[in-house]
Predict the structure.
Amino acid sequence: MNGVIKSLKNARMEKKLKQSELGSKLGLPQSHISKIEQGATDPRLSTVTDMARVLDQELVLVPRAMLRVINAIIRGEGEQTPMWQPDEKEEDQ
């Protein structure tokens, strides 16, 4: 969970949102947001989900077997041109 919370904190900071502003949007006091970000409290999954959505993020569960592939996609590794290409349009003659 620490990685998720760290990502959410980074997203909050990128949006230049103060803890109090995030808390206000969630109906939580700033002190609770601070405790969550510091790892001093174990938030409910619903709270983490709400935090993510307010920060334009989404929590997604993926099968563990697919994790390497998902991480590679997120990092943009292995990008290559498709094996097929649409036919080029023939110009009117």
In short: The chain has one domain: 2-75.
